[in-house]
Amino acid sequence: MIGRDLIGIEDLDRGDIERILDTAERMREVGNRVVKKVPTLRGRTIVNLFFEASTRTRASFEIAGKRLSADVVNFSPSSSSLKKSESILDTARTLDAMDPDLVVVRHAVAGVPKRIADVLYAPVVNAGDGAHEHPTQALLDMLTVRQVKERIEGLTVTIVGDILHSRVARSNIHGFLKMGAEVRIAAPPPMIPAGIESLGVKVFTSLRDALSGADVVMALRIQNERLTGSYVPSIREYSATFGIDRAKLHYAKDDVIVMHPGPVNRGVELSHELTDDRPSVILDQVRNGVAIRMAVLYLFAGRAPRSDLGELD
Amino acid sequence: MQSEHPPGPGFPRSQPADDVRTILDDTGIRRALMRIAHEIFERNNELENLYLVAIPNGGIPLARVLAANLKQIADVEPTVGILDTTLYRDDLATTSERPMLRLTEMPSAVDDRTVVLVDDVVKSGRTIRAAMDALMDFGRPKIVQVVGLVDRGHRELPIKLDYVGKNVPTSPDEIVHLHGNDGDPSSALEVVVSSGPADEGHVSERSPA
Question: What digits encode the pLDDT tens for the residues B51-94?
Fold first, then answer.
């Protein structure tokens, strides 16, 4: 069963994913109550260690922790100690000495949460590291698909956009494949990582072909700096070719749903109307994000101490 | 029939895990639930206020049968809710494996209602304590009463049952289960005791032998 840390979907098996999704489904009910709080993690301390700016993910983890009665401390070292040239691992060790029960880590560089997990006593949950993984995002995406479609196995999921730089895409590719879905990716060729087929995805450069028969379309956020670089000729061209609007959705199944990890560049990855209305499920994703993070905190925070960790220095 | 003879204090513990005895069969459970419905009717004046809250999984079929009985006896249709106690357990800090969460489905607020908690097997009283804490997060009930289909004794908290199906003296490390389909109150139910490892109050999906 589930390990000590949650670094990536790649490390989980199907049973682990289902366990987290099932737990999150129950957690969703707590969010529907008048009193949105249960005493489960009372007296536990959760540290949000965000080296990279994030409002949405951090707020989601914070609300999740508070709904479970944990004490949540937000720590953004970019504005404090890192300016004093304290190393990342030193910062993490300092926090660890304050005995948190779980540390949520986000960093712009792939692999940092794993490095931190290797030196910490507290379990670590990755909240996004570079272009590597963003496991809780993929879990909330899978929960949303399962909620709407009542299954994941056998569905066709098309991920559209900057796959090369996207940790969301990478985590979702691992997750949906493990859950038995067909995963397609569609992007301008410079945004498709070399050798991605080896993961088991089908690669398309034509959006029309990629959407044909799709149950789920997931648009990725295009970073503005990438639009002015050499990846795509222009915003307008990207939007015309790979932006999702109602006309292009006709290629997909009639009951297709549209997802986006947010925040949406309106009129670029998604048309205005699709950003706000069905079949897009963007706000369901946000709501499920809190439930998933409650499930992850419940399953990973403050379990009985690990005996095999040995001496920490 | 073996089920007529609950084990005494000297009951041997070294039996194999697959040694499963029925201590309350379907007929016995349904008779007990009819009697308890009459007792609920007798003790409560404002039955239209009644809210049966099942503790999953075992309490669910029992609460549904009680609701049907109360409809038959008193022509009332009590609200039936389901309340998982897992997030309120007092042993979460000491266990390394997190227990699976179960269903919670509370169709309305509990303010000023007569709430009857329904559980299959009551032993330490810790689940009832957790259920009362959970209940208070849904409002302020007027009164809270408790049904336990089987009372095993071995109480660790000052919890007293208002309605008991059957008192069954058991050894503390024996396992007592309600077997039955928790979705369908008309399927056969039985309470069995075994020495094998399992969760207290666990409802098995398999049909009774």
Answer: 999 999 999 999 999 999 999 999 999 999 999 999 999 998 88
SS3 state of residue A103: strand
B209 touching A, CB under 8 A?
no
From residue B110, alpha-carbon distances to A254, A263, B26, B75, B76 in Å are 42, 39, 31, 21, 17
Is B165 contained in some domain? yes
Q: Is A313 helix (H, G, I), strand (E, B) or coil?
A: coil
Q: Determine the longest span between alpha carbons in chain A, in angstroms.
A: 60
Consecutive H or E run containing A71: strand A71-75
The verdict on B90 touching A (C-beta cutoff 8 Å) is: no
Residues B98-106: what's their mean pLDDT?
Answer: 95
**Residue by residue, what is the 3-state secondary structure of A264-292?**
CCECCCECHHHHHCCCECHHHHHHHHHHH
Would B93 be classed as within a structural domain? no
| A9-134+287-300 CATH pick, 3.40.30.10, 3.40.190.10, 1.20.140.160, 3.40.50.1370 | 3.40.50.1370
Cβ neighbours of B95 in A, within 8 Å: 303-304
DSSP state of B208: P
pLDDT at B177 over 60: yes
Find how far residue B90's CA is from the centre of its chain: 19
What angle separates helix A167-178 from helix A14-31, to the nearest 10 degrees?
A: 110
The C-alpha atoms of residue A182 and residue A153 are separated, in whole angstroms, by 8
CATH of A135-285, one of 3.10.310.10, 3.10.129.10, 3.10.20.30, 3.40.50.1370: 3.40.50.1370
Cβ <8 Å between A34 and B94: no
Interface contact A23-B109, CB threshold 8 A:
no
Q: Is A218 exposed, middle or buried (0-12, 13-18, 19+ CB in 10 A)?
A: buried
**In chain A, which segments carry CATH 3.40.50.1370?**
9-134+287-300, 135-285
Tokens 């030196």, residue located? A119
Candidates B57, B85, B87: best to mutate against A (most CBs of A within 10 A) is B87
Beta strands in B55-200 (DSSP E): 79-82, 114-122, 143-151, 163-167, 175-179, 190-194
ipTM: 0.86
Residue B105 lies in a domain: yes
Q: Residue B161's domain spans which residues? A: 2-87+100-204
- Could you tell me if residue B128 is inside a domain? yes
| Residues of chain B contacting residue A68, judged by C-beta atoms under 8 Å apart | 87
| pLDDT greater than 70 at residue B207 | no
For residue A60, is pLDDT > 50?
yes
Return the CATH number at B52.
Answer: 3.40.50.2020
Please name which of B137, B197, B167, B136 lies closest in space to residue A31, comparing C-alpha atoms. Answer: B137
Q: What domain count does chain B have?
A: 1
Please determine, for residue B158, whether its predicted confidence score (pLDDT) is greater than 90.
Answer: yes
